[in-house]
Amino acid sequence: MAEHQEVPGRALIVGAGIAGLAAALRLGRSGWDVLVVEKAPGPRGGGYVVNFSGVGYEAAGRLGILPDLERAEQPTPELVYVDESGRRVAALPPEAHAALVGGASVTLLRGDLEAALHRALSDRARLRFGTTVTRLDQDDDGVDVGFSDGTDGRFDLVVGADGLHSQVRAAVFGPEERFRADLGHAVISCLLPEPPRAARLDAAQSVGVGLVGRGVGITPTADGRCAAFFAFRTDDVERDLREGPVPTLRRVYGDLGWVVPDLLTAVAKEDSIYFDRICQIRMERWHQGRVVLLGDSAWCVSLFAGSGSSLAVGGAELLGDVLDRHHGDPSGALAAWEAEFRPLVLSRQREALRATAMFVAPNATALWLRTMAFRLSGSRPVRWAGRRFFGNNRRAAASS
Fold first, then answer.
1. Burial bucket for residue 223 (CB in 10 Å: 0-12, 13-18, 19+)
2. Which of 94, 154, 229, 243 has its CA at 20 to 30 Å from residue 218's CA atom?
3. What is this structure's pTM?
4. Which of 293, 291, 290 is nearest to 312 (CA)?
5. What proportions of the chain, in percent to the nearest 5, are helix, strand and coil?
């Protein structure tokens, strides 16, 4: 007779980003024996500024990490739009931004969210850095996995939380190109030691340069650093990625003046630069047998949605809840989890498509309309319209 199993099972989580760490925390709390593998050599820091709200904010409260996130909170800045010479042309006040977000939220660096999850994880999971998955073979009872360090193991559940370019998705569902929908834009972001002097920023102000087809954002952090953000339209993202971030920045933004030359010089000195296409992952299903995708691996709503971190944490927490409800039936749990969470993800993906012009204006008319909207953003009618435009999905997330 088989020995009684005291834990729900053995879970492998591939990826130690926000989705993977949140899943490890939630499953660990339910007693799963959790192993997390991550290809990076160690925890990552920095990253861009995120507004963490909705389903993720609610989940963070239940997971017990919300006080830690609030301690890392960055001030909600006034978003100032300037022209190419640095002349102020419009602004979105903090209170108007809060109206657009809707409900409770916290603004913080993406790396601070990951760090909070790391601290909360404690001994609830084992983390193995510098390791990738080389083999996935599943049957009705479990998944046999081989790792790049030569070891292997058998697991009752595998969670692919390894991001946009997921190895788990490729191994189980097929190549990335089958599911990726490019949005015709690319993003480059970097955390700099200090803001460029010409920007004249303080902790309560963030600057966006209003351009057609190109966006530049500068946000100071509470510790005196500066998050730099570049998003631009591209007709050949493969060429851009091959070229690399620094040459691409110089080609796309090299004709601009004011603060941009200083930004390009500063970014070129940094080792940690995020550079990738802006896209969505669109799949008919996120699970197969005992393997499930989570976060950007499954849906990647894109940064235009502004909800990636929130969906990652909210989805991870719900996954643990549903596994608890379907104890002993991982496959059934995954189907139930997906049916419950998919409508919210699809609404965020649609929202991202509507919001694209807010990040990168496609033409002069769109740029003018955005400028006018920000100029009027402090008025009650515009705040009401913003809540109507964004708020329905935010309230749906909070009640999930």
1. exposed
2. 243
3. 0.89
4. 293
5. 40, 25, 30
Residue type, 102: G
The gap between the terminal CA atoms of the chain, to the nearest Å, is: 42
Q: pLDDT of the chain along its 400 residues, tens only? A: 333 346 789 999 999 999 999 999 999 999 999 999 999 998 876 667 788 989 999 999 999 999 999 999 887 778 888 888 888 888 877 777 666 665 688 888 888 999 999 999 988 899 999 999 999 999 999 999 999 999 999 999 999 999 999 999 999 999 999 999 999 999 999 999 988 877 777 666 678 887 899 999 888 888 888 889 999 999 999 999 999 999 999 999 999 988 899 999 999 999 889 999 999 999 999 999 999 999 999 999 998 888 899 999 999 999 999 999 998 899 899 999 999 999 999 999 998 888 888 788 899 998 888 888 777 766 666 555 555 544 444 443 333 3
Two structure tokens written together for 396: 């749906």
The answer to whether 172 and 27 are in contact (CB under 8 A) is no
Q: Residue written as tokens 């709503």?
A: 301
Report how far residue 400's alpha carbon sits from residue 389's, in angstroms, rounded to the nearest whole number.
19
Q: What token pair was written down for 210? A: 């209003």
